[in-house]
Specification:
The chain has about 60 residues and is an alpha+beta fold. It contains three helices and three strands; from the N terminus they run E-H-H-E-E-H. The protein has one domain. Strands 1-3-2 form a three-stranded antiparallel β-sheet. InterPro entries: DNA-bd_dom_put_sf.
Length: about 60
């Protein structure tokens, strides 16, 4: 298993979501991330697994 960390912009493109949606997911604890100073990094495999395990409910 390789840890491929990506930045916020890359994650937004992969998931095709807006920055506001990403912030909402992070606040709800749906997306795992690490914070290095003011920079957030995401392990893409863990993000995908987390979203598969906890599917986001749409309004």
């Amino acid at each position: 298993m390789s840890n491929k960390f990506i930045d916020t912009q890359q994650l937004l493109e992969v998931l095709a979501i807006s920055p506001a949606t990403l912030n909402r997911y992070k606040k709800r604890g749906l997306i795992p991330y690490i914070k290095l100073g003011n920079v957030h990094r995401y392990d893409l495999e863990k993000v995908i697994r987390a979203l598969e395990y906890n599917p986001v409910k749409f309004r």
